[in-house]
Amino acid sequence: xxxxxxxxxxxxxxxxxxxxxxxxxxxxxxxxxxxxxxxxxxxxxxxxxxxxxxxxxxxxxxxxxxxxxxxxxxxxxxxxxxxxxxxxxxxxxxxxxxxxxxxxxxxxxxxxxxxxxxxxxxxxxxxxxxxxxxxxxxxxxxxxxxxxxxxxxxxxxxxxxxxxxxxxxxxxxxxxxxxxxxxxxxxxxxxxxxxxxxxxxxxxxxxxxxxxxxxxxx
Length: 218
Hints:
The chain is about 50% helix and about 5% strand. The protein has one domain (about 15-200). Helix 3 runs antiparallel to helix 4, helix 6 (about 140-150) packs parallel to helix 7 (about 155-175) and helix 7 runs antiparallel to helix 8 (about 180-200). It is mainly alpha-helical and about 220 residues long. It has a two-stranded antiparallel ribbon. The protein has helices at about 5-10, 35-40, 40-70, 75-90, 135, 140-150, 155-175, 180-200; strands spanning about 20, 115-120.
């Protein structure tokens, strides 16, 4: 083994490239959450179309990775934008109820919005992994994510119960319980890592770990 190979072998595995964070608001509106299903409806309609495009882009990226070992940057940025948009809507509406600020209709980064999602662009991806990571390797993670957030919808599972309890707490106390908030963020963070891996956007396998709270662990 050459010195360079020794250094590579000794190097720690890369940190997870998926970043999901948010800013805690302890006292959103007591009642606005009751009508967010209506307010967020235009976003749901747009996201339905965007996720169809997300699947098509992922299929195209599969062939691109097979041939070039690279995820075309424009396609990658589009799919990250769809996940980013979806997270903002989920954070505003019934995935979290974390903010009363209406989400923007945008795939781009919005620095001053209280919910953020990003995926680091991989310079190269494994050709071999694309045959197994989207269904076989990710299967145990999908099962857990289905329990945590209801699968790819991000509005079910444990997160939905936490959101319901938080809404009731807001209605009667005006306070979003911090413990519920931190656990909810952890569930969505795990789900985002799994979706990005299953969509071929990274070769870093999601950890079986519930990282709670507003910020990614350092």
